[in-house]
Structure formats: C-alpha cells, structure tokens
Amino acid sequence: MLAARAVSVGFTLITVAKTMTSVSATTSSEPPRGLHAAASRDGGSGSPRQRLQKLLAVPGHDPSRVNDLLLLRPDTGQTVCGPKEKSGNRHVVFFHGDIQNFQEEMALQPEGSQWLRWSLEQVALTLGRRFPDRHIWVIRASHMYLHKFSCYQNFVESNMFGAPEHSPYSPDLSAFHHLRALLSHGMERANLPNPLQPQGDSIPSGFSLTLVGFSKGCVVLNQMVYELSGARADPQVSHFVKRIADMYWLDGGHPGGSETWVTDKQVLKDLASSGVSIHAHVTPYEVCDPMRAWVGREYGYFIKTLEEFGACPSKKLHFADEPPCIENHFRVIQDF
C-alpha cells in the first residue's frame, strides 16, 4: 500500500514524499502573543486576520493531552439573520489533513510554500466566509510524523502515520470528552463570554456545534460515530453530544487499508437515528482511485446504509469532470 500511493492530506505516502517537504509541528505552552493579541475580549469587528487568535498547548480532558487551536471570531459588525443570542454561541470545529500546518511553519519549507493557500490560518478564513456568524475552531493534530503525517492520537488510537484504530465509547478516552474540554479551555483562554464547562450536564444557551473533517481529519469524525451510542447514554457527555447539529466529511482518506469511511452497520444505524445532519463531499482523488478501490466502495456503502436507515445524507462528487489531483482534493474545503 505504501508503495502504491501515499496519504492525500490523508494522501498516500509516495505523493506526499514527492510533492512535499517536511513541515514542522511544534507546540508551546507559552501564552498567546503576536497574531492572537489583536483579538478583542468578547468578539471582533476588525479584519478577519485581526479576529484570528492562536491558542497553544490547550489541555483536553486529560491535562497531559494538549492540542494547538486557532480561533476565528465572527464579525460582530456584520448583519446576520436571527437573534444575536442564537448566533453568538454557534461553533464550527475543523480537523485538518496531512501537510497542513500553521502558515509560518509551512513557509519554512521551500516546496511546502506552494500549499500555503491551505495553511491552517487560510482554512480558518475560508471557513469564516462559509460560516460568517460562527466561531471557527481549527484543531491542529497533536503530532506530525516526519513533519507531514497528521496524527490525532488524542482523539483516536493511531499508528505513527495517523491510521486509526477505532473503538467504542470509553469515558476515560472519549473523543467527545477531549473535544469538549479543548473547547472549554480554549474559550476560557480566549476570554469568550459564557464559556462551555469542561464536563457535566450544563450547556450554555444557544450552544451548537458543526464538525468538519478534511481528509485525514475525518478519522476524528469516524471515531465519534463509533462512540455515539455510548456517549449519548452517558449523562456526563450526552448533553454536549446532542448539541452537534451537523457533521461534514470532506474527501476522507488515511493510510490504512480499510475503514476510510465507517462501514459498521450498527454504528451507522446509531448515526442515522441521532438527528445529526450528515454531509459527505468527495472528489475523484479519493473515491475514484483504482489503486485504493476500497475507498470508493466504502463511501458508497456509508451513504447507502445511512439512507436505508432513514437518514438523508447530503452528498456531492466535486470536480467529477476534471482529472484527479491534489489541488482539487484541497479545493473541496473551499467548495463544499
């Protein structure tokens, strides 16, 4: 498999090795400064970059498990539909793919500079245009093997290349618990009003979540689907889980030989009955690759099974008339 294709931002290994150089992924426990100092205490009405805040080494459910975050605050000067109290506590969480990193890290690499358009900062700004009335959170993977392969070990058991090993819900190692604690501590660090509490059944009024996984980042969404039934039955996390309104899979891919898309029938039945709106956006780069034909088959099974259980997932094959390429793989972030 490694000789055939590399992970596509979730790419396959050879593609990455030939087109990319290392991208460092350092973390820091130092307090935010520089870029993020421009953000205001309770919101933002300046330029998008002035509303962008970097939060380093934010702890999750286990204080030893940390992730770096980017927060883009909504533009409080922009007119949005609906009461302010309904839009003020809506959040989008994005999980990135391989190679993607902070812009300053990517710029250090001569070959990596061609992909700066898809740095974490640029993705946050893109999502801000897609969801202008929401807080945008970009969660950086806790580890980047060889400075390029994103590993979401804090959310799902993974090998060094980030290929996941999914498991049912566990109160001690839950992806939901880690996400909730990250958001809670991130909100406190950013001085957002009415922050989410790290645990318990108290959820702020109007709080809602949209989860977006791109390429390798989809492994986090898949793990949450495996945990869904158990998490909804646990009063410590069920109220948080029920605030997830939408889940977006964007061209999922990882270096494992299966389970790029969830195919467990009972798990998909739980997802279909959860009330979460399901969205799947793919490109030929992932689902039409003859060297990894199982990806397309699993995607088809994912959609078909959800529909059989009464869900109505929205789905789209982007760039169907164009040759498969990495650029279009990335462009799904812009076009979904």
From TrEMBL:
Keywords for the protein's UniProt record, in alphabetical order: Signal
Any GO CC annotation of this UniProt entry: mitochondrion
InterPro entries: C2orf69_mit
Region (Disordered) location: 23-49
Record has Signal as a keyword: yes
Record has Signal as a keyword: yes
Official protein name in the record: UPF0565 protein C2orf69-like protein
Organism: Larimichthys crocea (Large yellow croaker)
